[in-house]
Design goal:
With 276 residues, the protein is an alpha/beta fold. It contains 9 helices and 7 strands; from the N terminus they run αβαβαβαβαβαβαααβ. Strand 4, helix 5 and strand 5 (151-156) form a beta-alpha-beta unit. The longest helix has 29 residues, at 119-147.
Length: 276
């Protein structure tokens, strides 16, 4: 057997490391969430994709067609609704024999000067980014405890969980809240062999970042579309924006057995934008 054969065999083993695992990914109709769901399906997992958008059903069909070995189901659900969350996790329990991994990826942002920031926008961002993460983690932990297999909970934070930025105090507050929630749950759930960690994406091409480019560009100066993001990307030490797959790589590592001794951590995946 050659060295290449050994390498190929190791790669094959890694590619099915989530065989038979049940995974729930929120905010999975597009972008980072869809990319994470697809990677789990590629590596053998059964994936339940949740999103407020009905496009999640089509996303799940596409993931299932691309990676039929695992299978994916799309569910239209609001992570801020306790009833919707309960129904989604009940479905995972009935169809997938419980939940092994939860990825709390759902998130929203609005950008506004303080004097123009409405209470409705403040409450919406906190509700989705922080309360939604709490509700889904609460449901997942209860399910994991019943089945007694341990588990993984991964929460989406942000570079703004490291340093708040102008015109987004509500978004920064919501993401700092995710870090605190992650640390608290990691301590409480450790005895149940449930690890809880957070990940901080940087600039990743998406509809959200198109909005960020437009609105921050308007408020920060006379930027043309794409100019502000290009300026920010130029300042990233690794010299490029991130991809869905960059984020998925970290999430899948934290969900794997290799990360069994990692909990309560918040890890950047941003090309070096923030180094703390």
């Amino acid at each position: 057997m050659s060295a290449d054969d050994v390498t190929d065999g190791a790669a094959l083993t890694r590619s099915r490391r989530f065989e038979g695992k049940s995974v729930v990914v929120t905010g999975a109709a597009q972008g980072i969430g869809r990319g994470i769901a697809a990677r789990f399906a590629e590596e053998g997992a059964h994936v339940l994709l949740l999103d407020l958008s009905e496009a999640v059903e089509e996303a799940a069909q596409e993931v299932s067609a691309q990676y039929p070995g695992g299978g994916a189901i799309g569910v239209c659900a609001d992570v801020t609704s306790p009833d919707d969350v309960a129904r989604a996790f009940d479905l995972a329990d009935r169809t997938r024999n419980g939940v092994d991994i939860l990825v709390n990826n759902a998130g929203v942002i609005t950008i506004s000067p303080l004097e123009d920031l409405s209470l409705a926008d403040w409450q919406k961002v906190i509700a989705v980014n922080t309360t939604g993460t709490f509700l889904c983690a609460q449901a997942a932990a209860a399910n994991m405890r019943v089945h007694g297999r341990g588990g993984r909970i991964l929460n989406a934070a942000s570079g703004q969980a490291r340093q708040g930025f102008v015109y987004t105090p509500h978004y920064a507050a919501s993401k700092f809240g995710v870090v605190g929630l992650t640390q608290s749950l990691a301590k409480e759930l450790a005895k149940d062999r449930i690890t809880v960690n957070a990940y901080c994406p940087g600039i990743v091409g998406s509809d959200m970042w198109d909005y960020n480019d437009r609105e921050w560009g308007r408020l920060l100066g006379d930027y043309q579309p794409g100019e502000l993001m290009a300026e920010w990307v130029a300042g990233i030490p690794l010299g490029r924006a991130g991809t869905d797959d960059d984020v998925a790589g970290l999430v899948l590592f934290l969900a794997s057995e290799e990360a069994a001794y990692i909990t309560g951590q918040t890890i950047n995946v941003d090309g070096g934008m923030f180094m703390n």
